[in-house]
Each structure stands twice: as C-alpha cells, then as structure tokens.
Design brief:
Radius of gyration: 15 Å
Strand order of the largest sheet: 1-2
Number of helices: 6
Strand content: 5-15%
Order of helices and strands: HEHEHHHH
Largest sheet: 2 strands, parallel
Structural class: mainly alpha
Oligomer: single chain
Distance between the termini: 17 Å
Number of domains: 1
Shape: globular
Helix content: 40-55%
C-alpha cells in the first residue's frame, strides 16, 4: 500500500502459505522510505533487507522473541489504511466469496476491484 492506502502490488498466495514468504516480492523494485506491516512479517532477514535499503521497518516483533525491537507507534497507526483497503475490496462479492475457480481468474478480479476502488 502507498501512504494514501492505495495498492502498489498485489500477490496471490495459497491460503495456508505465510504472508512473510511473499514480502520480498512485494517490496522488490518499489521505492519506499518506511515499511509498515503487522507481526506476521516479523522476520529478521526482511527487517535487515528493508534497513539495508535505507528505509525504516515499522514491524512489531513477536511476543516470544528474546530481542524486542522498538517501533514508532505513531507511524504504525498508518497500517489501518491497508486494513481499510482490504475491507473495501471485500465489498465486491466475487472477492469476498471467491467465486472464481482458478487463481488467475481470482487475481484478475482482485485487480478489477482495486481499479474500481482507485476510481472512487
């Protein structure tokens, strides 16, 4: 998501696959100064990659980690923009109920829903 809550890149994964496995694809080739994500993206290699690019990683650490990382809590509040976009996309019935049988068709409709949201 951009700073305005608009999608930059969408990657479709299997339901049982962890989100963090696709984090590299999501940030690849995208210029950014800050990456805000939830605890599902707490992976040391990802945080190091973000910081190596000169950006700030606002990703809370999991509670069971020995080393807790400090984050900017005011910036983290901006994550709700991504949550709001997901809720707007789920207003489209085909996205919420996944009528499409193939991943290709479902992803295509997610793109259509994203375009409709952008046009509003």
């Amino acid at each position: 998501m951009s700073g305005l809550g608009l999608p930059v890149r969408i990657v479709l994964t299997a339901g049982q696959e962890a989100d963090v496995t696709q984090a590299g694809k999501l940030i690849e080739g995208v210029p950014f100064e800050v990456v805000i994500a939830d605890k599902g993206y707490d992976k040391k290699a990802l945080v190091e990659e973000i910081e190596a690019r000169g950006a700030e990683a606002v990703i809370p650490t999991l509670s069971n980690r020995k080393e807790q990382r400090e984050i900017d809590t005011e910036r983290y509040k901006g994550r709700n923009l991504a949550e709001r976009f997901c809720q707007k996309a789920k207003r489209f019935r085909r996205v919420a109920t996944r009528y499409e049988k193939t991943a290709r068709n479902f992803l295509a409709f997610v793109h259509v829903a994203s375009i409709m949201i952008l046009l509003r």
